[in-house]
Amino acid sequence: MSTGRCVWYQGSTEPGALEQFQAIQAWWETLNGKEIIWQQRMLSGSSDLASLDWSTQRFDDRYIIQTPQIKGITLYWTKATEPDREQNTTPQRLELDREQQHLYIFPQSQQGLVLRITLPQLVYQTITLKNPEISTALLEDYQILTFKDDDKRIKVQIALSPETLLGFKASL
User: Fold this and answer.
1) What is the pLDDT of residue 128?
2) Those residues with Cβ within 8 angstroms of residue 80's Cβ, 6 or more apart along the chain or in another chain
């Protein structure tokens, strides 16, 4: 199966439509027990999803999804905190971005609305130190590198195993 996007339209007779739908269904069902972010946005004149503001907004929801499944063309699920309250939506269009792990649902009942279901992404904090003081120490088998920036009052210590240290030296 290729990477990129899977797109399915209700009533589509395009070759490959069934395979696209099945790929989306398989992805949807793998979400069981995982934390998701559920967002909804109004389409404003353009259907370009990249132009929408997907930054966190007031009505966005983050929860553990349970029993995600598709019956017919309707998506069903429950929230882990509300297992007796099954929810559903019937799409006119589904679009799965496999690389970003985003599913876009265009509900049949609400023209002009798009839902985005995504898995939370790890966000790394980047610390930039310019010309820090560098010191080293040996602790058991680990080489400890210390980077210290007095102006920013930051000290970063990194413990490298002998194998990791060799890889680090090779990359310099």
Assistant:
1) 84
2) 33, 63, 64, 65, 66
